[in-house]
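Worked example 2:
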Amino acid sequence: MSDLAIRVNSLGPLGSAIRNIPSATLAVLPDAAKLVFRGRSAAVDIVGQAFGVALPQEACRFSAKGVRTAYWCGPDEWLLQAGGGAPAALFASLDAALAGQSCSLVDVSHRSDAIALSGPEAAYILNHGCPLDLSLQTFPVGMCTRTIFGKATIMLSRPAPEIFHIDVGRSFARYVWQLLDEARGELV
């Protein structure tokens, strides 16, 4: 189990020295407990109730309530994220609720860092390294998907019309941050 109290966010120093570009603002998102859940419909209902957020059943969508979010990753896979929570405590409570179920629950809190890109030019900046159509019609609020940015695999989500969240593996976090910041440079 990871412990967020001793984990150091790989983007921490970069977030405090960022250029102010209001049309495309970069920010480091706080660490969160992250669990990957895989299971069938009976277990899905149980974990959704225990987590406090119904797991989305529609492809490439996420559900959120307060500081908790459930991201659809595949037909039987979800990423469960809880801000401000201890991963071990969340894992223990969900594991207890799932007792006797045929499923998998893995703590992955340590594997990634998260970035917020917001502003009217956020989609434009993302398209410097991401091949998806990020228009509101094609990638609406509430959508998420695994994709690439440059050479990095990311989980991209859109919680608001001009806000994107990027969850990226720690080893690629600085790379993605620097590519985003470089692309923002053309807006100066």
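The chain has five helices and ten strands. The first strand starts at residue 25 and ends at 28.
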